[in-house]
User: Fold this.
Amino acid sequence: MGLPTDRLAVEAANAAADKKAKDIVVLDIHELTPIADYFVICSAHSGTQVDAVARAVRDRLEELGVNCRGAEGLDEARWVLLDFGDVVVHVFREEEREFYRLDRLWGDGKPVPFESQTQDPVT
Assistant:
């Protein structure tokens, strides 16, 4: 049996934190939309860092047995969207995050407590 969806979202956030992503937010949006249960939103300083964060998140969740169903934006590395089904991860360059303001758009979502530290996913 796999990890609960909320824990997968936190694991994605941990992976982003490991690559020094900033302003990481985990939102429970399951009552707002059928597209996903959780959004993980974070920022990176450069395209190189956006790419590194996205790859780290994909690698971490795939290690946990969750395949990435789709990825958009990897070529431009300005806003990368990773679709893991019930968890969708958005990795933004700071300028794009400020422009699109996804945090505000989905502001009715419930914030999930997140401490940026790597945790053992098997506890």
Summary: The chain has one domain: 5-107. The longest strand covers residues 22-28. Helices lie at 5-18, 47-63, 94-100, 102-105.
